[in-house]
Amino acid sequence: MYFTTALALLGLFQAATAAAPACAADNCLRAARGKAIATRSPASHCSSYFKVTVTPVTTIHVISPTNIEVLVNQVTITASNIPAYAAAPCSGPVRYSSACSCAGATLVTTTIIPTPTCNLGQIVCSGDICQDVLSNDDNCGSCGKVCPPDKRCGNGQCTDAYI
Question: Where do the domains of the chain lie?
Answer without folding.
Answer: 21-60+70-115, 118-163
